[in-house]
Structure formats: C-alpha cells, structure tokens
C-alpha cells in the first residue's frame, strides 16, 4: 500500500510549505496513522486514493464507540481533511472524499469525559479516614487505571489479581475473559485496602473471592458504585453528568489523546463491537503493559 509514502510526503509538505511546528506536524501524522490502524484492524487493504466517504464515516463511528472525545474526533477529522487536501493539491486524487465528512450522528450520546485534574479532584474528595474510603480510593483508581466496566469492577476477584506481572484478569460481557494491565498506583491502593480494611470485614460465603465488598461482607452493587462516584463528583464541585462509565471513557480518551495505538486500547477495553473473530488482533501482554506505562497519565 502507498500509505507510508503519501504520509511521508504529507509530513514534508506540513514542514516545508506550511512551516508548522514539530508538535503540530506530529499531531497531524498521528491522526492519519489512526486511520491506517483502523483499516489494518478491519482487514481492509486499500490505498488512500481508493477511500470512499462511507469508509471514513465508519472509521469515525468506530472511534466514537472506542471512547474518543468529541474534541479529539474533531481534531482527527481536521487532520484527515488536511491530508486529502494535500493529495488533491499533488494531483494524487481527483475527488476529495472528506468534503462531506463530519462527526457521526449517533443515537446515544457518550458520557462526559473527565480530564486528569477532574479525576484527581474526585479521588481527592474521598474521606480516607473511614474504612470505606480506602475501598473507594482503590475502586476508583482501578476503574481509571484499567478502563473497566462497572459490572467488571464489582465482580473483580482476588484470585484474578496478578500484581507481580502487572495484570488483572477480567470477565467481561458474555463471560469473555481478557487480561488488562493495571497501574502501580491502583495496585498500591488495592493492597492497602486488602491489608488494612477488607481483612476486618465479615465476608459472606458467596463473596469470599470478591475484591470490593460492602460493610456487610457482600459484593457491591453497580448502583452503589454509581452513587459513590456521583456523591464524590458533587463534593469535588464537578458539574458534569458523571457515572462509572465516565472513568472508562476517560481511560480510553487519555490513552488515545496521548498517542497510544488504537489496537492496544480496543483490546484493553474488550469492546464487543471491535473484537469479533474477523477483526480481532491479538497483542502480547508486554505490548499492552508498555502502552499503559507510556501513555496513561497515572502510570
């Protein structure tokens, strides 16, 4: 395929003709590389001059599902449009497929995304003088560190913590298992909770292997986690529509905005719509771990 050759020419154009800064040029190139990663993951072998508007719209819908923020989507669209304007200028293409390209209109609005400062404010609002405070600190750090669904968080088992390797095993939708990296801060606070709080909880027989428990020794409900996060957001003075899923979207968005490979992010999320047999691309655990360490704000 001609992608790399055209991207190289586009980079030179941005540097020499438009005199953009190094950071601006690299941002444009990362946007185009996200598109090429998408085609690779989908198994689509095509050259830039063969791309149609529908394929670009499918790409935007896909990254929306992945959790990319509206601001980042707008920037990616801008980068792709600039790339195709360059191809048009160089007479590589005759028609520009990006002329009608805009953000996809989806029926479901994604939750607000938190920036790293807002996440810090929410977590700092936890009263750690209370036993449930240490539990809540560990829970929120885990949510943000690994991008879990709330159902995956409340069902997380002690036997599925592999801290020596820096991973946790998650049972996702449809009982599908996946291995997800977990950051050192989250591991630290889980250990604090296990060693100083959970050991004093009278654990029910059905919850002996469940990590996060309520004060009666039972598994937390999804609704309880929602109320905890909602209360902390209000206490922190953050006036956004916040839910546990907001942390999952923030996890994905911060990795993507930092430049992480989309293939790594999608595997860590365990996204149903992008892990079918045809498009699933296996990545080794060390690669996922390296992605977290390099791109996650709290790694």
Textual characterization of the structure:
By secondary structure, the chain is mainly alpha-helical. It folds into 2 domains: 3-89, Orthogonal Bundle (DNA polymerase, domain 1), CATH 1.10.150.130; 116-295, Intergrase catalytic core (hpI Integrase, Chain A, Orthogonal Bundle), CATH 1.10.443. It has helices at 3-16, 22-42, 53-66, 70-89, 116-124, 131-146, 150-154, 184-196, 222-235, 244-257, 262-269, 285-295; strands at residues 161-162, 167-171, 177-181. Strands 1-2-3 form a 3-stranded antiparallel sheet. Helix 10 (244-257) runs antiparallel to helix 11 (262-269). The protein is elongated. The relative contact order is 0.13. Mean pLDDT is 84; it is low at 273-283.
């Amino acid at each position: 395929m001609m992608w790399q050759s055209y991207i190289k020419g586009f980079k030179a154009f941005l540097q020499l003709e438009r005199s953009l800064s190094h950071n601006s040029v690299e941002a444009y190139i990362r946007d185009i590389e996200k598109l090429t990663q998408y085609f690779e993951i989908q198994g689509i072998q095509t050259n830039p001059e063969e791309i149609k508007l529908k394929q670009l719209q499918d790409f935007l819908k896909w990254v929306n599902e992945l959790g990319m923020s509206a601001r980042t989507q707008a920037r990616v669209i801008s980068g792709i449009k600039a790339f195709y304007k360059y191809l048009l200028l160089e007479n590589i293409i005759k028609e520009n497929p990006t002329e009608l390209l805009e953000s996809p209109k989806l029926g479901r609005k994604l939750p607000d995304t938190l920036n790293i400062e807002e996440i810090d404010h929410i977590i700092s609002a936890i009263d750690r003088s209370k036993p449930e405070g240490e539990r809540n600190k560990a829970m929120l750090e885990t949510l943000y560190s690994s991008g879990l669904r709330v159902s995956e968080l409340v069902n997380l088992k002690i036997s599925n913590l592999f801290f020596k390797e820096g991973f946790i095993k998650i049972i996702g939708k449809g009982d599908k298992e996946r291995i997800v990296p977990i950051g050192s801060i989250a591991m630290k606070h889980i250990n604090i909770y296990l060693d100083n709080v959970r050991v004093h909880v009278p654990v029910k027989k059905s919850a002996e292997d469940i990590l996060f428990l309520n004060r009666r020794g039972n598994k937390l409900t999804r609704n309880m986690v929602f109320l905890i996060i909602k209360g902390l957001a209000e206490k922190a003075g953050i006036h956004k529509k916040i839910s546990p899923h907001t942390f999952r979207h923030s996890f994905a968005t911060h990795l993507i905005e930092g430049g992480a490979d989309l293939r790594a992010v999608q595997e860590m999320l365990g996204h149903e719509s992008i892990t079918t047999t045809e498009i699933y691309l296996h990545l080794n655990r060390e690669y996922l771990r390296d992605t977290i360490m390099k791109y996650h704000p709290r790694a």
